[in-house]
Design a protein that fits this description.
- With 406 residues, the chain is an all-alpha fold.
- It has one domain (4-252, 323-404).
- It contains 18 helices and no strands.
- α1 (7-13) runs parallel beside α7, α7 (108-131) crosses α9 (179-194) and α16 (325-359) runs antiparallel to α17 (362-374).
- The mean pLDDT is 91.
Length: 406
Amino acid sequence: MINKKLLPLYLIGLYPAALTVGTLVSEFITIALSFFFIFEILKNKQFFFLKDPIIYFLLVIWIYLIINLLVISVDYNLSFNRSIFFFRHILIILSISYFFEKYSFNTDIVFKLWAITIIITIIDLYVQFYFGQNLLGFKSPWKLRLSGFFDQELKVAHLLIGFFLPTFAYFFQKKGKGLQVFFFLFLYLVILILTNERANIIRGILSLLLFFLFLPLLKTKIKLFITTTIIFVFCSILVFVKPVKDRFVNEILFMEVHNSFKNYVILSNYGPHYLSSIEIFKNNKIFGTGIKTFRIKCNDVSLKDYYNFDDGRLNSGCTTHPHQYYFEIISELGLIGFLLFILFFSYLIYRMITQFFITKNLVILASGSFFITQIIPLLPTGSFFTSFGSTIFFINIGLLYAYFNK
């Protein structure tokens, strides 16, 4: 029997499952969770968040998004939802922090539900890898990659890296160094690599390395053994599993980059999108063109200065978004928006580092590792403002904020 008072914790615990079903379901959870939070703070007159710089930063960003929508955006209708409803991410952060504090002895509920969803997802991905279809009969739209419960969408690795490490950290800190915990880690690492989502695999491995590098509960020799094992597992799969080798090695070797990192970026699948965002920024340096307007303005730029093929080919720089957070923000929100986000990211990293060394809390280390690897420059991403990616992003910030305030 579910305790009705703990319903907000169950809602938070259902986030990864809801994101798997569809963003409409996750948005419903956000609305319900926000309703409970607002009701609680109005009833109890607890306005703790009015004193925290993290919330100040986000409120300033939200206000700027609204001003940008009303004054700057080249397409009001496209920009409206993601500008106005950016406020929901602030509510996610505050709700997680509030209910983690109020029901601090019951937070097991959240992480147990996350663990169940992650375990089922991992099992399902192994089934799809070995049998060509998952437990529901879904086949990946791209044979080199796994989709799992997401069917035709290739984003399951993003879900895994967003929820696995905080869950692992919570139970590791609570239950200690049990063999089953490391077995769970091994299963996660292997299937993460087998999803063949290059950017998310890199982020996932880097976040694991960061986590174990700064993990205070292990001796240096054990840390070295774990980090070496992570690298060894990745390299072994890279060598012996052909789809992974094709993605990470052969695709890159076939590119005529002439040992130039710049050429690799320009000639990659996302290079034209990055360059298009730079060209858009050059013409709209201060305020950008408005959220979600890259898909319109990319038609107005030319990439002939970057791509001059003899046979007349020209890489198209047009798509729904630039596939990199920084390029998306700077082209759509200009220097002002870019600086606001950089200041927010920098302050959050500062708080994360100082709070971790004070508290030694592993959830801070885990969500902090996820956060840092999400904001690595140049590495491809989804859109910063889409429901799926931003929900995972701000849930982890919500965890950081919750444990900052403990």
